[in-house]
Design a protein that fits this description.
Helix content: 55-70%
Number of helices: 6
Radius of gyration: 35 Å
Number of strands: 2
Order of helices and strands: HHEEHHHH
Distance between the termini: 98 Å
Largest sheet: 2 strands, antiparallel
């Protein structure tokens, strides 16, 4: 075997080896893509329930206002509304917060604050009227 033939043989062997490595890498890449496609889902294919389970809303502390009423901590997540509620007299503010943010009924609020349900209803409507004036009209209608 001549030296030139040996170099040609070595070059062909190396060329064959490189091509085999590339084929194997392609096979591995395709196998990995197939495996990933079985486990992954496109966001657009998720249902709203699944999307809600995977998402989260950042709460910015500067945009929230907290109120403490008889052991309840109520958070208002709208800064303008929270500031308007803070301006209300305490007797109106407590009723409005318990009704609209704690989800209590008039009798439940009356029992907690030791008021008659009619008084609670009157204070609730009065607080809503004052909030409408403070916020410029049609808020909550």
């Amino acid at each position: 075997m001549k030296l030139a033939d040996f170099y040609a043989y070595t070059e062909q062997t190396f060329d064959s080896f490189c091509k085999q490595v590339i084929r194997n890498e392609r096979t591995d890449a395709l196998r990995e893509l197939t495996h990933k496609s079985k486990r992954e889902t496109v966001f657009s294919a998720l249902t709203p329930v699944e999307m809600a389970r995977l998402s989260m809303v950042d709460r910015i502390p500067e945009d929230t206002v907290e109120f403490h009423i008889r052991g309840y901590t109520l958070t208002v997540e709208n800064a303008a509304l929270g500031q308007a509620i803070a301006v209300l007299p305490v007797r109106l503010r407590d009723v409005a917060l318990l009704y609209y943010f704690a989800g209590m009924s008039d009798p439940q609020i009356g029992q907690l604050l030791r008021l008659k349900p009619d008084t609670v209803q009157h204070r609730r409507t009065a607080s809503l009227d004052k909030l409408r004036k403070l916020l410029g009209g049609s808020y909550g209608q």
